[in-house]
Design brief:
There is one protein chain. This protein has 9 helices and no strands. It is an all-alpha fold. The longest helix is centred in the last third of the chain and has 28 residues. Helix 1 packs across helix 2, helix 1 crosses helix 3 and helix 5 crosses helix 9.
């Protein structure tokens, strides 16, 4: 893809992503949820607001400013977020959240130079790393999370076509936002489990 086309695609992705975030926030405050038809309409409206410059001394669209701060999200993050708007979407299984959190805890310190080993370099065409990603996708399938298989497959295809500016496979699979989400989800799940254990222990306490 030419540079201009890549920039346009990136802005379209970010516009839809920002729209999805807004709709999920609205849905969190909606008592009865939001119908899918309304979500689709809101995506169209919000995405246009984020994609086109709104004037008022703004030379660039809102999505360009968001992208300037956050950078490009990974394909995995993008598709997880978009798919959350679909009716009857598959929630990410807890073991997968744990896997993402553990990978993030190991990956980022090493990638930032904690040791001589740089896992980020594996993303530049390492066959072993690619096989590892495919094995992880297989595990997702065996765990019954078919959506994860599709997401990882699309991420690999996007990487092979250099859909984003980066040519590193890691940038299509993982990003700080996904890592923070996984870590928070794991922590929140552990907190809820402790509350449930404490509550059950109180209910069944002798006397």
């Amino acid at each position: 893809m030419t540079n201009n086309l890549m920039q346009t695609v990136a802005l379209v992705e970010m516009s839809i992503t920002c729209s999805a975030l807004l709709i999920l926030l609205l849905q969190a405050f909606a008592r009865n949820g939001i119908p899918f038809s309304i979500k689709a309409l809101l995506v169209l409206i919000f995405a246009n607001l984020f994609f086109w410059p709104l004037g008022m001394s703004m030379e660039l669209p809102l999505s360009a400013y968001v992208r300037g701060v956050s950078g490009d999200l990974s394909i995995v993050s993008t598709l997880l977020l978009w798919s959350a708007l679909l009716p009857n979407h598959q929630a990410t299984p807890t073991p997968i959240k744990w896997c993402i959190a553990i990978v993030a805890i190991i990956f980022y310190p090493f990638a930032l130079g904690v040791s001589m080993f740089d896992p980020y370099a594996l993303g530049y065409g390492s066959i072993a790393f690619l096989i590892g990603v495919l094995i992880f996708a297989l595990i997702c399938g065996l765990a019954g999370w078919t959506k994860g298989v599709w997401i990882i497959g699309i991420a690999i295809i996007a990487w092979s076509f250099h859909w984003h500016e980066s040519s590193n496979l890691w940038d299509y699979l993982l990003d700080p936002a996904l890592a923070i989400w996984a870590l928070f989800a794991v922590w929140n799940g552990m907190r809820k489990q402790r509350k449930e254990k404490a509550r059950s222990g109180y209910l069944f306490r002798p006397g």
